[in-house]
Amino acid sequence: MSQLQERDSFQEQLEVLRARSLDRHLREISSAQGAEIEVAGRQLINLSSNDHLGLVNDSRLREAAINAIGEFGVGAGASRLISGTQSPHVRLENVLAKWKGTEAALCFSSGYAAAVGTIPAIVGKNDVILLDKLCHASLIDGAKLSGAIIRIFPHNHLGKLESHLQWSQREHAGKRILIWTESVFSMDGDRAPLRELVQLKKRFGALLLLDEAHAAGTPADQRIEQEKG
Ligand SMILES: Cc1ncc(COP(=O)(O)O)c(C=O)c1O
Question: What's the whole-model pTM score?
């Protein structure tokens, strides 16, 4: 393909996206993140942020970050597995594990990295992942990367999930089955039926993984912890 043909093919692809209003652009924010932000000289209310707990500008966190930069600099230097992991990260993970009542915690630099970093460690080829239809795109990428068989169930549809579980047990006996969903959904803000999911998971000997990007630390969090049992 010549350079000209290459450019035309990308141009064509862009036109298709534009025609379907699927072309995306970055919006420049010239203020700090918060409930109100400045975009193109206008002060706007931000209803699309994930900063549910308002931590981005919490004065204690700002101060701690500035102090940490003073002591440790601005980068890890290399992968933590290779050159060692730094004390503030270990302390953070210990505190998170204690808060969540878990054996351990592992921090990733983004939600996307957590999805693609964890799933392939939990399931692999011939295992099965059962994924809610409204799960975030990063979960779908993580599922694909694992090489496991993926089955999608309609949003919060326990009946369909149960039939997927029966199918998995029958067709992939002895393999791991992972139910993967969100406790509070990013798209609609609604919640997964956790009590029922835990019952199904136990009945079929499956694993249950929850993405709590929009739940951890929010008022819904405590209720979710009780429902997980
Ligand atoms: C439920 C959920 N999981 C994962 C992610 C990905 O997180 P990140 O943007 O930090 O990669 C998002 C992002 O909005 C999300 O809503």
Answer: 0.88
